[in-house]
User: Which sequence fits this backbone?
């Protein structure tokens, strides 16, 4: 099983946000386990901005995915291999939205 680096396109992603929106985005790395999977975000109508998936006979497995919510926060899910259960998570947001992001993260933490 091949292990990969986490958040492989982070630098390119942040540069793209800066180039298109003219804003340097802040980031929040969640340092706790949250039961958050791409399928949950797709069900909640988050917009899929990027994904790196592996296809098996049983179905798909996401290695990485970036989603955007209605508040224009970006949620980046990343894991080292398809057998990992939990994702490392980073949230990107405009600095002016810090209070709203804190509220958003508190709700995410309830998914434990």
Assistant:
């Amino acid at each position: 099983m091949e292990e990969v680096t986490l958040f492989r396109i982070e630098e390119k992603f942040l540069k793209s946000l800066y180039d298109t929106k003219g804003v340097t985005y802040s980031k929040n790395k969640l340092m706790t386990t949250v039961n958050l999977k791409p399928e949950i975000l797709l069900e909640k109508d988050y917009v899929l901005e990027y994904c790196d998936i592996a296809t098996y006979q049983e179905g798909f497995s996401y290695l990485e995915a970036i989603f955007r919510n209605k508040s224009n926060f970006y949620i980046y899910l990343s894991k080292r291999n398809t057998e990992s259960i939990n994702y490392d998570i980073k949230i990107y947001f405009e600095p002016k939205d810090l209070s709203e992001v804190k509220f958003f993260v508190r709700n995410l933490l309830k998914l434990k």
